[in-house]
Amino acid sequence: MANAQSDPGSGSLLKVENIIVRFGGILALNSVSFDVRPGEICALIGPNGAGKSTLFNCLSRLYECDSGSITFNGHKLRSLRRHRIAEIGIGRTFQNLALFRSMTVRENVLMGCHSRHHAGFLRNAFRLPGAARIEAAARARADDLIDFLQLAEYAERVVADLPFGTQKRVELARALASDPQLLLLDEPACGLNHEELEGLGVLIRDIRDRLKVTVLLVEHHMGLVMSISDRVVALNFGKKIAEGTPAEVRMHPEVIRAYLGEAEEKAT
Ligand SMILES: Nc1ncnc2c1ncn2[C@@H]1O[C@H](COP(=O)(O)OP(=O)(O)OP(=O)(O)O)[C@@H](O)[C@H]1O
User: Fold this and answer.
1) Cα(2) to centroid of ligand 1, in Å?
2) Which key words tag this protein in UniProt (predicted)?
């Protein structure tokens, strides 16, 4: 696994600076800045519509920012093409799972292995010299991840036939297969039962501690966020309203106000 390297100038692996995103008249992100440091678990929280998914989509180049800059390990993300995101070391999962549902678990993880090494994929496709070596390395990596995520008993099963919680672990394996330095997790707890949730907290910590992957997650489940995060960034209406340790952010007056406002809205 690649080790996370810091940006020598700033001590951060990811640096988001003054990002602005507009959708027509909606200011989805209003000059948002924050850093993710190598080796940390950082959570992005905020009520519905706060801008969390928009920010994730900017980080994975699915959305264009109107202004601002995003630097990952020395790469300026806004000038990169989308397919290079995996190549430079950013992996992600999606709220709605980005899996090939008619393929097996192993085939999905192998697809992830090839997404970082585009040249290797082409070499394989055209059976160029070195293809067998690349394929063997991908298979070994897929095996390791299948074991790591306790998916061995499902490896040859078609993804569509598996329970949702298991599919979520397959998606994690797919995202890790590209050997990322930074893993973006989009609502990893969504749809999981109580038991699966407890396992998820341990798993995210293991991803950071054993695989040495830095983690940035968007999550609504405050129990999970507060128990695993080193740092929390809170957004509301597209603006950063707080940043700090879980304890600091939980007690922050603007965070309390934002969530109370949301609770009141839901109650009426
Ligand atoms: N593709 C889009 N087109 C138009 N408006 C959008 C688009 N994506 C997001 N928005 C708007 O931008 C704002 C931020 O939305 P976003 O989905 O980023 O919030 P969020 O914090 O992820 O919310 P949730 O927790 O509900 O997923 C919202 O007002 C939303 O309606």
Assistant:
1) 33
2) ATP-binding, Cell membrane, Membrane, Nucleotide-binding, Transport
- The answer to whether residues 204 and 74 belong to one domain is yes
Q: Please check whether residue 190 lies inside any domain of the structure.
A: yes
Ligand 1 atom 2: residue of nearest CA = 23
The rounded Å distance from CA 169 to ligand 1 centre is 26
Answer for the pair 121, 214: CB distance below 8 angstroms, yes or no.
no
Cα–Cα distance for residue pair 191/248, rounded to 1 Å = 28
Q: What Cα–Cα distance (Å) separates residue 22 from each residue in 65, 71, 80, 88, 95? A: 8, 20, 20, 27, 22
Total domains in the chain come to 2
CA 17, 22, 23, 25 dihedral sign is positive
Q: What is the CATH number of the domain that holds 76?
A: 3.40.50.300
Examine the domain organization and report whether 256 and 189 are in the same domain: yes
pLDDT 10s digits, 190-245:
999 988 998 999 999 999 999 999 999 999 999 999 999 999 999 999 999 999 99
